Amino acid sequence: MRHFAANYIFDGQNLIKNAFVSVDENNTIKFISDENQALTERPFMSFYNGIICPGFINSHCHLELSDNNYSENKNIGLTSFIEKMIENRNKSHDLKKIKLADDLMFLKGVNLCADIVNTDLSLDVKLKSQIKYINFAEQSGLNDDIAEIRFNKIFEIYKKFKEIDSEIYLSPHSFYSVSEKLLDKISELSKDSLISIHFMESSEEKEYFENKKGKLFNFLNKFQPNALSDSSLCQIYNKFQKFEKAKSVILVHNVKTELEYLKEYKNIYFCLCPASNLLLHNELPDDNMVYSQKDRIIIGTDSLSSNNSLDILKELKIMQAKYSDLSLIDLLKMATSNASKAFDKTDFGNFTINSKPG
């Protein structure tokens, strides 16, 4: 049995001063001490200055984009970023960079990662990874006439992950990028499922739904004119009714999310990706949104196309600087126990007896 002691143990809920946690040879938690019990030395005890906490949970990532260059996308905004992603989707990819990103994310403390997949590029890396992945096969397409084709294409990716027993769910990219028919096909399979959806990422998205104009509106009209012209802002929020039987709906970004529309939905969690939002749009959610929903906020890194690292601690430091009224416990919960609830992963995010949270 090994004992890991520190100035503080964060068990997922509380900070325990001068405490230690004990693990067996399989890294399974076997004991969590009370306060000051680490002041008495034990055989095979290591003491660390700082805080020992459960492994971090990255609640939103795009590992397959790890060979992209984030510096090219600084301050370009949502629409220009989408255009670049579309331009790059058929380029050849550097699998070594995807593997390196996975390795570095683990070394930065991530043990569980919710990852968006549009291809099977990351599949082999994930098979050998020390990180547990929850995958979301992401769907998009504004043309109802080819909804079946679009659905079947991503469903092939979904099946490849299923064949090797990887955890994977079908999810829409965003409400502005899926037709009603495609959204209905996804929602039919959402019972007891997890859903991850990019939502109210920037002022451009809000302007699109609120006023039917702007850069994003003009861009999407090139693909399917008037595809969502009848959708008001209120109607967009009402679409969450389609996922009322899902275990959890993870809304990603939330820079312009309006909480009054979401009061009736109890299965929603808010994933923030602060470094990515600052790089692309120089915007973050308002203070009220963060403080009022702190127990339902979780943290992601987004991809290396909009971030210079997949480092959850860096994201927490940005949160701490912007939202100074958040306590250290609030911040740590966002990266651990809040996310374990959101993804229904009780073995992660908390120090509990017989768990292996990393």
Write the layout of secondary structure elements.
Blueprint: E1 2-10, E2 15-23, E3 29-32, E4 45-52, E5 56-61, H1 77-88, H2 95-107, E6 110-117, H3 123-128, E7 132-139, H4 147-163, E8 167-172, H5 180-188, E9 194-199, H6 203-211, H7 215-223, H8 233-238, E10 248-253, E11 268-272, H9 274-280, H10 287-292, E12 297-299, H11 312-322, H12 328-335, H13 337-342
Parallel strand pairs: 1-4, 5-6, 6-7, 7-8, 9-10, 10-11, 11-12
Antiparallel strand pairs: 1-2, 2-3
Helix pairs in contact: 4-5, 11-12
Task: Tell me the total number of β-strands.
Answer: 12
Topology as a string of helices (H) and strands (E): EEEEEHHEHEHEHEHHHEEHHEHHH
Number of helices: 13
Q: What is the radius of gyration computed over CA atoms, rounded to a whole number of angstroms?
A: 21 Å
Strands of the biggest beta sheet: in what spatial order?
A: 3-2-1-4
Major β-sheet annotation: 4 strands, mixed
Helix share, percent: 25-40%
Which band does the percent of strand residues land in? 15-25%
Distance between the first and last residues' Cα: 16 Å
